[in-house]
Amino acid sequence: MEAIKQVFTTCKAEGRAALVTYVTAGFPTVEETPEIMLAMQSGGSDIIELGIPFTDPLTDGPTIQKSNAQALINGVRIPTMLQMVQDARKLGLTVPVLLMGYYNPVRAYGEEKLLKECQSAGVNGFIIVDLPPEEAVRFRDHCKVKGLTYIPIVAPSTTDTRMEMLCSIADSFVYVASKMGVTGATKTLDTGLEQLLSRVHHYTKGSVPAAVGFGINTREHFSTVASIAEGVVIGSRIIELLQEAPKGTGAEKVKEYCLHVSGRSAHCAIKSAQGQKPSIAKTEKNEPDQLSAMKSQNHTTSSDDIARFGQFGGQYVPEALMECLTELEDGFNKASADPTFWEEIRSYASYTNRPSSLHQASRLTEYAGGARIWLKREDLNHTGSHRINNALGQVLLARRLGKTSIIAETGAGQHGVATATLCALLGLKCTIFMGAEDVERQALNVFRIKLLGATVIPVPGAHPGDGGTLRDAVNQAFRTWVTDLKTTHFVIGSAFGPHPYPTIVRTFQSVIGEETRSQFMQEMNGKLPDAVLACVGGGSNAAGMFYPFLKDPSVQLVGVEAGGDGTSNGRHATTLARGSVGVLHGVRTYVLQDDDGQIISTHSVSAGLDYPGVGPELASWKDSNRARFIAADDKDALDGFRLLSQTEGIIPALESAHAVAGAVRVAKDLGPDKDVVICLSGRGDKDVQQVAKMMPNLMSAE
Ligand SMILES: Cc1ncc(COP(=O)(O)O)c(C=O)c1O
């Protein structure tokens, strides 16, 4: 911490802004990183940010994304990074080094262990882009004890209240993101920068320096920013240079660029680096946790508690997204307390075809030879799945918030179709992000979305072997949203994502369970079903089906996850059964990840279940044992697909076919005179072509 303070004091004395340079650790190769750090120092860099590669960077542009992917291929993990810093220090690196990245790899490594090892490796602090305020304060206090610094980030969208709070936790400098959007070198700087900085300086009372990053590229940019800020951060341009440089020349190019951009001479740069001793962080005496003090000053949002489902949930997003999540939360709270909003939703019942029917599946019951099986027919909804319930609620909410443009992610394409349908109906611009692999396997839905007047953006997989699935679509939708939060609403389709999305999606989907409960009780003279089942991808149809039965302890809640090729070989999507607690797409929940906190690839025959995370509320129901989760693999699902078609004359979506397979097992276990209701989340028209290709190999011969 002291070393960084010293940098800014020296720069001030020399009448210049500090140059802060970024490189992703291990890009382009592991061997070059210490060399690049030394080249930055010789080029006049005052502070170095070493990027922690992560599989799913939420608001990084293509340049940093690619460098992350390459670094991961190169095997870079936190221990490799610490070794790089140690090596660079041995070779004469004296400038402070900050580790910068997303929280999940840090969390997986273990904060305590990391801070200790950073201290001895010669790391000086952290920039963690997606830590929510309450955790940032805790982390900062732990850093402080070890003599390390934690740098908060502010963005143009940061409100005064948050700005005050973030500036108050800064102990060395504040990182100011110059523009809304993803990282990346740009041609022009944001015109509002001066005003943003004067707000920062107001809240730091001039006592904590501010360094501006995002988009800085040329000498002219540097000079402009240096005239109003105490530091200038350059990242993407350096990564571009490294990408362009002939093999083995990257470090030299970086040095030349740093000298040029900062306008410093090599002599001055060497002199100031020599003037510094390698900065070793020193343990400080324990400081009180500042959270309670901040809470009493009303600095944190009132939603800290309601944003969580036990240990799950929260808002692990870059600062730029915080304000619009607050706007969404306020808008949703107001709308849900307003009876006219619910009247408006109900006025679309004939359009969406609600209530959906509850159908007793007699021949399927006979086949299973156990409990009676019932089907809640969400497949009969307009557009063919449960997705329309949530899309309707969110699109109407977006309209209330004055948004004119809608974006959405989609896996199986059903959420894309439902969203595009409502945008057509209400005259809103619509863009749907879909993994490139899903675009192939759900071609019919891609055509439907386009026919409805929306644009489909295929998103390639970011890592080797990944064709591009729901996870990639979510990443790209977030990256697009952050460029235009004012006019755009991101209609997340499942019960995942940062607060308030899981609550919003579950609220709009609860119509499934509410109707099931009253329809079933009416049919069965007040009895409740013994079990309700739903397939689980992100968890929206399950959350909507289960929530109204939560307080009925006699009703078993059973989620069916995608077992893929079979859960033992790693190609599956059984996040609740086989995942561990982590952070993905802005939320703490169960995640399929490796020991280093990198998200792993999933597989399922059904695009809609092919996702490595799950809604936080489902995670909490698993932990409290209120719900249990079983798996149906690809073959089970294909069997279920044919079984429902041939016993009931209903072709289910491949996603719902997992629930059918699971229900046959549960019905057998429960035995006669019991009742099981399946949420038949969608119909299978979209899957028929795909299944036709696979049937000869995968369907069991009978
Ligand atoms: C028909 C259908 N059912 C279920 C799902 C899984 O999503 P969730 O778990 O959010 O209900 C999907 C996803 O696309 C789907 O299309």
Automatic annotation (TrEMBL):
Q: What is this protein called?
A: Tryptophan synthase
Q: EC?
A: 4.2.1.20
Q: Which InterPro entries match?
A: Aldolase_TIM (IPR013785), RibuloseP-bd_barrel (IPR011060), Trp_synth_beta (IPR006654), Trp_synth_beta/beta-like (IPR023026), Trp_synthase_suA (IPR002028), TrpB-like_PALP (IPR001926), TrpB-like_PALP_sf (IPR036052)
> Which biological pathway?
Amino-acid biosynthesis; L-tryptophan biosynthesis; L-tryptophan from chorismate: step 5/5
Origin organism lineage = Eukaryota, Fungi, Dikarya, Ascomycota, Pezizomycotina
Annotated Tryptophan synthase beta chain-like PALP domain ranges read 352-682
Catalysed conversion reaction? (1S,2R)-1-C-(indol-3-yl)glycerol 3-phosphate + L-serine = D-glyceraldehyde 3-phosphate + L-tryptophan + H2O
| Location of the region described as Disordered in the Swiss-Prot/TrEMBL record | 273-304
> Record's Gene Ontology CC terms?
cytoplasm
Gene3D superfamilies this protein is in?
3.40.50.1100, Aldolase class I (3.20.20.70)
Keywords of the record? Amino-acid biosynthesis, Aromatic amino acid biosynthesis, Lyase, Pyridoxal phosphate, Tryptophan biosynthesis
Q: Which GO terms describe its molecular function?
A: tryptophan synthase activity
Cofactor(s) of this protein: pyridoxal 5'-phosphate
* Family (UniProt): In the N-terminal section; belongs to the TrpA family.
Per UniProt, the ranges with Polar residues bias are 293-304
State the organism named in the record. Penicillium steckii
NCBIfam families linked? trpA (TIGR00262), trpB (TIGR00263)
Work out whether the entry's keyword set contains Lyase. yes
- Tell me one Pfam family matched here: PALP
Which PANTHER family does the UniProt record give?
TRYPTOPHAN SYNTHASE, TRYPTOPHAN SYNTHASE-RELATED
